[in-house]
Each structure stands twice: as structure tokens, then as C-alpha cells.
Design brief:
single chain, mainly alpha
Length: 301
Amino acid sequence: MPRQGQHSDEQTARILKSFVFQKECSQDLFPSDLKPKLVSDFIRDEVPPDALERPVSRVSKLARFYNLRDRAEQLVDMIPGNERKPIDVQRSCHLIIAVAELGDAGQHGQVAQAFDKLVFSSGAGEVYEDLINTFFSLSPKASPDALTQSVGDARARVEKSGPAGQLGQLMNYDIRDIPAMLEEKARKDGLLTLQDLPLRRQRYSEVYLQMDRKSAFLWDQQAGYALLQDARNLGEPAGDTAAIVALAAAMERIDPNADPELIKFQKTRGYRARRFFNEVLDEEIEDDAKDSLRPQDDLLM
């Protein structure tokens, strides 16, 4: 993982201000080498409670990447509960996901309640993909009833009036797929208590590389963060090594008969993550995906 704390306090403040508030900011510029305390202090002091969706999305990524559990309460308080537009729903989704990862049991309950209300908001119909991804971040105790009812109600309206307007996205989330989705979430939640850590890393790696189409786009980003947290728990260099081993083993199982574009995506994402965990890739591997590899990690995509 990148070494943290290589910048002065003043440099850190400038970097964070640019990343969070600059309108156009490339993912390549994600600041992964800062002191976590300074990141936490910046979010506490500089991010207003009514910050717009774009800054909130970046704050959520910072909080998750640096494991800022002390910011969970602030993020809970930023959820308005009166979302009307799709972008407002997306803003709250960013906050709920972060708190679901960083908060305590009480805060988990708060964001679960916020989510149950969010799925019935007027802006929900255009962003069901965001809502479904957010549901996968909630604790195992979170009920699926509100999401199931919301999708079912919207699906019924689509079937009655056609997929025009804000309900068009629902065509991608047929209510008949809800049981399969809930089964996948149960599998994800089961990993939290799996004692076989190498097996857990293997599963996270496979999900992150989107090798299992049942989990693709549902919680692959969360799997990347889980690998990161697992590596941090082990400490360096053991954590880096364990993550590299799991990712490399998963890449060996990529289906050679799959669509070439999918294979390229999976390999490139695997190489990026392995490089993030400080593996020095040889020239042959670099050439294999040199048109897609970037200077920064891919654990935040």
C-alpha cells in the first residue's frame, strides 16, 4: 500500500481541498498517501453539512479508504431525509455506504432506516442501480422489505404504462431477480464471519475482478475495500503479500474463453490492485495491459 504521511500539513490541506471541491478531478489524482488524522480533521472542519453530491462522493471515498470511523457520526448527520431529485438520492447513497462500513451498530441502524425511506423518495426511480449497490453495503440485520416493495411497485407501474421516463431503469431490475439478489447479499454477509482468512481473500478477489457474474456490479467495489482493510489488519508487509497472493491466484482462474474485453478488464483491474499492494510488475505484465494501467490504484472505481 502507499506510504502515508509524506506531505506537510499545508500540502495535505491543499491536496484535499482540490480533490474534494474542484469540479473536475481525475480518479488518477486520488490522494492515497496522506495522514489519516489530517484527512479526518479536514472533513470535520471543511466539509459543510449541505455539501453537494460531487464533494460528498469524494468525502465518502476518503472516509472509506482511510477507515475514518470517527467521521461516521458527521456523515450520518449529512443525510437529509427529504431527497427529491435523483442526484439527492445518489448523494445520500454515498453517505449510507460510508457509514455502513465505518459506523457502529447504532449508526448501522440509523442508515438502514434512512435507506428504507430513501427507496420511496420521488427521485429513486432513476437510480435503482445506486440503491441496490447501497443495499449491499448495509449490515446483515438490514431488512430488504422496503427495497423489495419499492422495486415491485415501480415494476408494476412500468408494466402498466411502459418503460418511459424515470422508471425506464427498472427494466434492468425485474422483481423476479430480487430473490437471487438477496441470496447474493446473504453470501456476502456470510464472509464477514468466515474464519478461513485465505478463503475470504480469495472470494473478495474473485468478486473484485467480477469473475462471478452474480456479484458483478453489486458489491465488487466493496470487495476491493474489504481486501484493503484485511491487508491493513495484517500490517505491512504481510498484508500486501496476502492481498497479492489472493489476487494473483484469482487471475489464474480467469476464464480464457470469456469475452476478450471482459478478460482485459479483469486482468487490468487485477494488475492495478496488485501494483497498489506494492508488487513490482515485470515488463511482460506491464505490456499486457499497458494501455489501461494507471499511476494510481483501482480500489475506488
